[in-house]
Amino acid sequence: MSYSTEVKKLLEEGAKSYASKNFEVAIENYGEACQLYSQDHDGEEDPDLLLLYGKALFQLAQSRNGLFGGNPDATDDKEGEAGTDADAKPSNANGMFTFSEDVPLAEEEDEDENSAKEEEEKQDEEEDEEEEGAKDEKKDTNEEEEEQSDFEVAWEILDLARALFESQIGGMTNDIPQDANKSQDPVIQTKLKLSEIYDLLGEISLETENFKQASDDFESLLKVRESLYQFNSNMISEAHYKLSLALEFNFDDKESKDKAITHLKLSIESIKQNTENAEKNKDVVKDLEIRLEDLQKDPNEIFNQQKQEIMKGILGEAVSSPQTKKPTSTQPKNQTWKD
């Protein structure tokens, strides 16, 4: 694809920023490149530029997700407790003594008026504090929504790129000549980009705990990769593994657990058939087989085992039982997926 000088410059700057993990600047560069291209081509979008833009958005969303992974409510709770302590202080904090019996009537009236005035002022202050608190809470909510929307923006951009690449493939012939240079073949190049996009879409769906969508994304990833790689390729074993992970937590589908087991078995078999790296893959196969055993366990058996471990913990014989968690990584221990 031929780009203008301005777009090329933005792409160079974006690549440098992306490589140095300065994703905010990379997003600005790639976003502007997309905008300039669209302006120069009557509103047409370029999927390659969108892919770069979407990848930078995803990386920023991931970094922010890790950065703000703490509990923001803890600070608010402390501030609330501090406010309660201040309210609990006695109003007459200056140590002065008053003798009500000896106070003249006129001074009593003045004190009543002053007391009423002080009460009114205090009420106004409390109302102002409530309004400020409501504004701060609304601001915090808006900021949280903005943080959560990082993945949504990345999703929209990448999904648009996906649609455009799929449209391109629809207009191409899928018959690749035997003597064709596969690294330069346009169908293969487009499918490789689609593979990358489906991988990213699946990761976003896992991050946002949309496991049904993640299952769909990784299933599409698997289909694309199956048209590009042999069964014993790491790219195939990785796709089966990621699909298994998404299916394991897709509780909307009653058959998801059986499907997860099937794809995990296929992932293991794919790795085993990669005889060139058999020695290097021993550890990852072992890890995946342990995971498979856990996945195949009967839920009642797991429940009873957890009960026993809890009882042991109560008796001081063991620590607390493991809990089911959402997936924190799509890469098993001891494995780095490379083709």
UniProtKB/TrEMBL annotation:
GO terms for molecular function: histone binding. Residues 320-339 have a biased composition (Polar residues). TPR repeats lie at residues 195-228. It is found in: Nucleus. It comes from the Eukaryota. Keywords: Coiled coil, Nucleus, Repeat, TPR repeat. The keyword Coiled coil applies. PROSITE patterns: TPR (PS50005). Residues 195-231 form the Tetratricopeptide SHNi-TPR domain. Residues 65-150, 315-339 are annotated as: Disordered. GO terms for biological process: CENP-A containing chromatin assembly; DNA replication-dependent chromatin assembly. Residues 104-113, 121-134 have a biased composition (Acidic residues). GO terms for cellular component: nucleoplasm. The keyword Nucleus applies. Residues 261-298 form a coiled coil. PANTHER family: NUCLEAR AUTOANTIGENIC SPERM PROTEIN (PTHR15081:SF1), NUCLEAR AUTOANTIGENIC SPERM PROTEIN NASP -RELATED (PTHR15081). Belongs to the NASP family. This is Tetratricopeptide SHNi-TPR domain-containing protein. It comes from Cyberlindnera jadinii (strain ATCC 18201 / CBS 1600 / BCRC 20928 / JCM 3617 / NBRC 0987 / NRRL Y-1542).
